[in-house]
Structures are given as structure tokens and as C-alpha cells.
Specification:
alpha+beta, four-stranded antiparallel sheet, 7 helices, 8 strands, rod-shaped
Length: 325
Amino acid sequence: MSDVPAPEPDRRQGRMLFAILVSVTGLGLAFLSWVLRDDDAWWSATLGNVAVAVLLLLPAEFAINWVRKGFRQVTEVASNANVVALAAKSTADQTARSLADITERLANAQSDELAAAQDVYRNMTRDASRDSLLAALRQATADGLVTRQGVRSPVWETDLHYRYVVDGPNGELEIRLEEDDGSVVSTALWTAGEPADAFYQRLVLAVREAGQDLGTGLNLPTQSVAALADMLVDVVGLRAQALAGNRPTLVNIIERVEGWYLTETIVVPGHHLHYTIGVDSLAEPNWEEHLRGKGWFEAHHLIPFARRLYDKPVKPAASSASSDD
């Protein structure tokens, strides 16, 4: 069995016994001093002085005890204050950590929301089904990322483009093969129940019939779908924060070609997203030279392409008339 620790001595009881002992001793000496007052004056005086000294121990003890008690109270108050201060600091540290944790959780939740929005378009390549493509195009249209007249994606290394149109009169998914200016070469409807490989083979044949089949392994309509998915994922990311300034410009997109975004109202160079070219201004004759001066050499063929897409031919140079007065 373990030893039980002995209880601490009762300090109050000790002080009481001390007071009784001092009182009895002092009073006894005082009594002897009184008895010897007539027989031996010297002893009487000595015992009287000793009695007084002994009895003075009582107030001295009480004074010392009062001082000790006060010191203990001050120490306890200081100790309690220190405990309270440490507790407050600990609480503040825990609060700060909790706010940091909440901030991190909020940021992570918002990042997850962004990833989920982008996954709608990533699913265009992960799941090659009609439903996946239809859901992505409907979402992009509802969010205003692409035009309600459909969104285009280039047919690689040709002058052709696929335009993906959803929710026509019968809610169908329609893919048109178009030229630069939007002239329709052919149309293919992807009806429910048609396998993906069968439908994409029809797109292969449409490009071949248009005379722009580049040969084995190069006529792949799936590449155009992947490029479209990449564009939509990029646009959602670029529009994720309002302070980036891309929300007003990257809307109602018709097509992305070589990184340039062509929307219903403006052309946006992909490498300078804050630089915009109004569609109506494309008719001005000096755009290629102006942008070449910025080092944007791709403008040499992208500006003419944009003019064909928007039907904005270059304005004829104003002739200067001379007259003889």
C-alpha cells in the first residue's frame, strides 16, 4: 500500500498555543513580581520587566502574522493575476489560430468551388459522351462565357471551324462546319443514343468532303473539342477574381484562335488581356502595322481573320481632292 502523506500542521492552532503559553508565562512572572515586592525589591523589579517583555511577544506575534498574511495575499493576488494573464494570452493565441484555420478553410472551399466549375469543362475530355458535351456547352452559355449563337473551335491547320450550338428549336446538339467568315459548309446533329465514336467519325468525313483532310492522324475533331475545353477552363480561371479585370471582357466569346479571344464586341489578345480592339474599329487600315510595332507579329494574320469573321473589310483610304483656286 502507498504511504498516505501526513496532514500539514494547523498554523492557527500553533499560534493559539503560543499565545496561551506566552500569556501564562507573562502573567506568572508578573504574579511572582507582585509577591516579591516587599521581600526583595530587585527580584520583583526584574521579574516585572521580564513579564512585560514576555507579554509584549503577543502583539509582536500578531503584528508579524498580520504582515505575513498581507504578504501572502499580495503573492496570491499576483499569482492569480499572472494566471489570468497567461489564460488570456492562451485564449488570444487560440483565437488567432482559429481565425487562421477558418480563413484557410474558407479559401480552400472557394478553391474547391472554382475547381468544380472548371471540372464541368474538363469533363468534356474525361467523358466523351454527348451528355457531357451538352452539359458543358449549356453551362458556358448560361454563364455568358460564350454566345447564344454557339462557340467555335478551329479545325487544326485548316481554314475551317466547328461551331457548337445547343438548345435549338428541338433542344438538339448541333455542330456546324464553318469557314472563317461563318459560312456554313455542313451541319451534323448529335442525337441522343448515337455513340461518340460514330458521331466524331461523321465530323471526320465532313472535313474530308470539304477538301481539307490533312491525312492520316491529322483529321481529328476530338482535338477541336479538347481545345474548346481548355479555353473554357482558362476563361473560368481568368474570371475567378473580379480584381483581375477580366470579367467585363471575357464574355460572349465566339472563338479563341492562337490565344486571342474573339467576342461579340471586342478582340482580346491572350498575352495582353487588358488590351482590347473594338469590332467596329477593325475596319481601320493600320492595325497590323500598329500591333507589329508592339511586337505582336501574329496580328499580321489574326487581324485579317477577325475582319473576315466580323465582316469588317478595311475602309478605303480617303482620297485627297485638289482644286485650283
